[in-house]
Structure formats: C-alpha cells, structure tokens
Amino acid sequence: MNFQDELKKRTEEIEAVLKSYLPREEGFAKTMAQAMNYSVLAGGKRLRPMLILETCRMFGGEDKLAYPFMAAMEMIHTHSLVHDDLPALDNDDYRRGRLTTHKVYGEAMGVLSGVALLNYAYEVMLTAFDLAEDEKARARVIKALKVMSHKTGLYGMLGGQSVDVENDGKPMSREMINYIYENKTSALIEGSMMAGAILGGASAEEVAVVEKAASGIGLAFQIQDDILDVTSTAEELGKPIHSDEKNHKTTYVTLMGIEKASQQVAELSEEAVKLLEGLNKKNEFLFTLVKELVGRRK
Amino acid sequence: MNFQDELKKRTEEIEAVLKSYLPREEGFAKTMAQAMNYSVLAGGKRLRPMLILETCRMFGGEDKLAYPFMAAMEMIHTHSLVHDDLPALDNDDYRRGRLTTHKVYGEAMGVLSGVALLNYAYEVMLTAFDLAEDEKARARVIKALKVMSHKTGLYGMLGGQSVDVENDGKPMSREMINYIYENKTSALIEGSMMAGAILGGASAEEVAVVEKAASGIGLAFQIQDDILDVTSTAEELGKPIHSDEKNHKTTYVTLMGIEKASQQVAELSEEAVKLLEGLNKKNEFLFTLVKELVGRRK
C-alpha cells in the first residue's frame, strides 16, 4: 500500500475511535453536546491523534491504551480552535468551509461548549485507568495525563495563545515569535508524541528525545503554514491566503524571508526524523508522515 | 472557640493552601498568570475547598492529599464565574466589588484565562499522585479525579450552565429548573464533598450518602440565594438585589412563593445533616457549617 492510501485508511480508523468517545446528544444539555460534536466532526487531518497512536506503536505499545488519549487530544485541539474563532479572538465565521461553532450555536455556547470539550477530554483520558491492567500501565497513564495537561495549559498551548492574542498586530521579537510557535503550535505536537511514547513504554531518556523531535516538527509545521499563506492559492489551501500580511502579523516569513524560512523547514524536519531514527525503533509510516507533513502544499 | 472564629481561622488556612498552588507571574505568559490569579484572589467564602477538607477529615483522611483538590476546585469554580461574567453571558462589570476579569484584561484574556484556570486545576490535581504513598492512596486519587471531572463537565456544572444560558429569560418548567440547580449549583458541591469523602477513605456506599446530602445542600443553597434576592438589601448582600425579577428569571421563589421556598430550604438542610449524621462519623464543624450555610443572610 502506498503512503497516501495508508494515510487514508489510518485516518478513517482514527475517525472511528474519535466518534466512539463523543458524548450522546440527549437530555436537557443536548444542545451543548451537539455543539461539542459539531466542532469535533468538522474534519481535519487528525494529525495529533495519529502522532499519539504511531509513537505508541513505535515503542511497541498497545493501541487500546492510546485510544482515549487520541480522542482527548483531538478534543483539546478542537476546543482551542472553537475559542480562537470567537468574536473576541480571531472573529472567524468559517472554518474548513463550515460555519464556526459560535455562528451556529451563539457566542455563549461557543465559549461554554469549547470549555466542555476541554473538560470532556479529561473525563475521557481518565477512562484509560479502567483499561490499564497493572500497576505499570497505571503509572504510564498518570505520566501521560501529566504531560497532556502541562502541554495544554499556561505552560503550553494556552500560554502561547495568550501571548499571541496580547501582541496581535504588534511587531514582535524573534524570541517572542519562537515562544508563541513553541507553545501555540508545538506544545500539542510534543504532548501527543510524548504521551504516545509514554503509553508505549518509552524510558524517560527516550521521551526526552521524542519531545525534542516533536518540538522541531511543530516549529517546521508552523513555518510551513506561514510560507503557504504567502505562496499558495486559496483553492489549494482551502482558506483565505495572505491573511498574515493583512493582519500585520509578524511571522518567520516576514522576519527572514521565504527562502531562509523554507530552508529552516527542511533542516528542522530532517533533524527531527534523524532524532526519531536514532532511537532504533521502527515505524516507517511515522517517519514518512513527518517528512510529508513539513513538505505539504496545504 | 465559637463557630464564627473557627470559620475565620479555617478560611485563612484555606487561603494559604490556595495561594501555594497559584502559578507564578513570570515569563512571556505573565499576563495570563496575572489574570488567573486576579480572579482567584477576588475573595469568596471558599466554601467548596472547605467542604472537601472537612468531608475528608470526617472520614479520618489526611489533609495533605486533599490540598491539591481544594485548590483545584476553587480554580474550577472561579473559571465558571469568569466565563459567566463575559459579555456573551451575563455581561457583568463587577463581582464582589471589583472589576471582573475581562474588564481588566480584555475579553479574549477573559475567555483564555478562564480556560487556563480549568486546565491548571487538572495540573494541580495530578500532583496528588506524588503525595499518594501507596497503591491504595493512588486509587483514591484516581476516583476523586473522576468525580471532579464528571461533576465539572457536560454532565455537571457546565451542562447546567449551558441550559441556563440557552433558556435565559424564557419561562421554564419545574423539571428544567431542577436540572439547572442540580447541575449549575449542586454539582460542584457534590463533587467537593464526594472527592473529600473518597480521599478520606469512604466506602462506595458512604460516598453515595455524601452525594445525596451534598445534592440537598446545593439545592438549599441555591433556593436561599433566590430568597435573598427578594428579601435582602443590596448592602446586606453586597450585590444588586431583585436581579431575578429584572431578568424575568424563573426561580423557586417565582414558582412557589417565598414561604414555601423557605420551608423547602429548611427541610432540605435538615435532611442533609441527618444523612451526614447517619454515617456515624464526627465533624461538628461541618454539620454546623451546613446549617449556617442554608440559613445565611448573605
């Protein structure tokens, strides 16, 4: 099977896992459950759950224990998109060609259902304890939970989001941009791969290597996003282009130009794959996924 | 020591625990940490952490294991107030005589720092695993975590909030009001007392009794709120009165009148204390606290 077919097949498997963890739309709070499911089912690459699963497999872990974390990570990621789209933040009416959550369910429900997704992610992750068969597996679940919450919060994605919002439209230093990319984008990529590694049974040293690789992958992913915003067409990308320029956003491209930015993407992804290969664990699909990700056209 | 002095002393102890868990205001995301601390340090009765601690003590548990859960519960409660005050929800400029979080830090930071508090609550609760000395204690932490997340989310406080928001200003059935009170108000009271009981080593049967008592306490607490909105003065209450009438809000008072509502408060609190006393565990302070709570004048 070639990589694209394999990717499609695995994405479908992940969709099924994700759906199995969504709340039922019933009872008085039915609308909240509908709003939660609406945002999660809007589609997407399902990259983060895929990274959890494949990194877990790389270390010889069982898929089963990774499932709740995969669903939870996609809920955490989705919650951040729902809030990003709110009028007080980016004020976006459309995402992936569909109306954003607050446009369908109102702003109050946009806020509340976003939070409910984040909280539900924890409810789902905590069910992993019921799947853990021994003390060793429970210890892994505890470690993975800690990583997930740390990378999501003040010292991870939410912290990065806050600095991004606070400095919207202002000129930014390279140091600040790095902080924002490292947290707003890389943190959940790191959290995904680290949680996968931990659940798969990786040692602390191996988890540290995975974190470093994931950090590079996240950064390369974000710089590639900046590049595509300049070089791609709206048709290719499926969303408006030149948005960074319009919003006077400081990006890697505005800081160092397209050529150097592209060079950095190539270097970062090469280094990340080298780090992962250096662990002497096999997962060709994961390595190809990383390479394809950073060289992507959309 | 009389009850009021004892209450004051214990509230101060809880403030100290809470402060010890707050994030440091440093680094790029300093403003987010400041906004989080600003809302938590706005004051309040600290009722929920007090219920965790006292219920834990009632079952002979150690204070130490309860501490992270106490701090976390107050963060969860505070996050719900921060979001409730947002322009898209209740649009309140003041709470407890201070500007609300979004009035000081802007609406985007109001949304994000509220979420960050919720997520930080989980980070804090997960540190309880480091305090748990054996497998038995870790099992209690897992159970308490599950209760906290369940009572916070779609099937608890957030679900109640969503139905309240969705039906704002509309006439509501008694059934729907019960659902809202049970979830928006009682759920966190239940979560607090159940988590305390679990951490203290209560059996599943005992936890079920505690849940039932807490449900009654939460309902009585909310009905008393409705009554005070009609019978109290703004000076006594420290916030505007007759707000329910102005907002055309259906409450227990509009549904059944003040007299019957007051009667129900008395019955509910009496029943709750009876349930707790029936467990044959001692904690006079907790029993008095419950009685004082529901008969309160503010």
Automatic annotation (TrEMBL), chains A, B:
<keyword id="KW-0808">Transferase</keyword>
<keyword id="KW-0414">Isoprene biosynthesis</keyword>
<keyword id="KW-0460">Magnesium</keyword>
<dbReference type="GO" id="GO:0046872">
    <property type="term" value="F:metal ion binding"/>
</dbReference>
<comment type="similarity">
    <text>Belongs to the FPP/GGPP synthase family.</text>
</comment>
<dbReference type="InterPro" id="IPR053378">
    <property type="entry name" value="Prenyl_diphosphate_synthase"/>
</dbReference>
<dbReference type="InterPro" id="IPR008949">
    <property type="entry name" value="Isoprenoid_synthase_dom_sf"/>
</dbReference>
<protein>
    <recommendedName>
        <fullName>Farnesyl diphosphate synthase</fullName>
        <ecNumber>2.5.1.10</ecNumber>
    </recommendedName>
</protein>
<dbReference type="InterPro" id="IPR000092">
    <property type="entry name" value="Polyprenyl_synt"/>
</dbReference>
<keyword id="KW-0479">Metal-binding</keyword>
<dbReference type="Pfam" id="PF00348">
    <property type="entry name" value="polyprenyl_synt"/>
</dbReference>
<dbReference type="InterPro" id="IPR033749">
    <property type="entry name" value="Polyprenyl_synt_CS"/>
</dbReference>
<dbReference type="GO" id="GO:0016114">
    <property type="term" value="P:terpenoid biosynthetic process"/>
</dbReference>
<dbReference type="GO" id="GO:0004337">
    <property type="term" value="F:(2E,6E)-farnesyl diphosphate synthase activity"/>
</dbReference>
<dbReference type="GO" id="GO:0005737">
    <property type="term" value="C:cytoplasm"/>
</dbReference>
